[in-house]
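Re: the 373-residue chain
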Amino acid sequence: MTADTDAPLAGFTIAVTADRRREELTRLLERRGARVVGTPAIRIVVLHDDDELLAATRACISAPLDVVVATTGIGFRGWLEAAHGWGLAEDLHARLDAARIVARGPKARGAVRAADLVDEWSPNSESSAEVLEYVLAMPLSGRRVAVQLHGEPQAAFCGALRAAGAEVIDVPVYRWVLADDVAALRRLITMVVDHQLDAITFTSAPAVVSMLRYAASLGVGEAFVEALRHDVLPVCVGPVCSAPLDELGITCVVPERARLGALVRATADEVPARCARRLDLAGRPLELRGHAVCFDGQLVPLPPGPMAVMRALAAEPGRVVSRRDLVAVLPGDGDEHAVEMTVARLRSALGHSAAVETVVKRGYRLAVASIPA
């Protein structure tokens, strides 16, 4: 297999944390050559039978609404579906139709229009802060404002509206909760901490927050954050999604458009650019990737032992690395004989014995012709 433009992610391991559309995202990344691992970080619990949602819906119907904030497509649709189940759909639709509707993003706007309603405005940024700024510019004293929540209470958002004099109705359509398979989530966090991934993708801010909280509960919160800062590249679908990581000083890849396809394209562009190491080895181009090397245009997957040795030798290309130091990087228990066997396997995999030079009584080094700046 060659690592060309048809498979830009070949040799890289990428995690998927999405719940909805997880299979689609996995398939798109695999088409580009990635090894994909992962598990949902969160799951959605829809509150169709929730007393709190029913009470909020009745409150919305009890008197005219002045402003309605639709924050998510799935939430707005779920609200209307729940109202239909309670026999309140017609009354709710009438109140919504008479109100000024503000949609947080295109998915929320699409759900509003699919319900034969008209939205007044939606920010390009999909930012709750921009929505809040827009609504606060309205005369709110004594006005009734319904806010469709998106997974968690929006205390700051709704509090600011109340401080401006509005009567705010919180509409909790669904909640984000920790994924069912916590064992798989724990393994994924361990992979991040142990730098076994090249990148991790996120499609929602609650998923980011959930992983940060769960890592902290496992006692590896700081190590998890440090891995995302330096070794595992976070790729977020949009600026709203990346906000919890931005606050921690973690640099994320964020596509220009908050769409799944754009997320995949950004991953395919940025992971090779940021995560690959390029050398001229024995007169041939070598690219060091996550679990493989691309040597002279051919992708060569490497087992953990040979890859660990390759990384140690490539850390300072051309420098001799002692057998003792290489023993330390081998997975599991090993000795200098194990190092010799692993180097032999590495040479065999590369198909070029001169690529790794033996320096008598000292160790090994890569036969580097030049080191790129």
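DSSP finds 15 helices and 18 strands in the chain.
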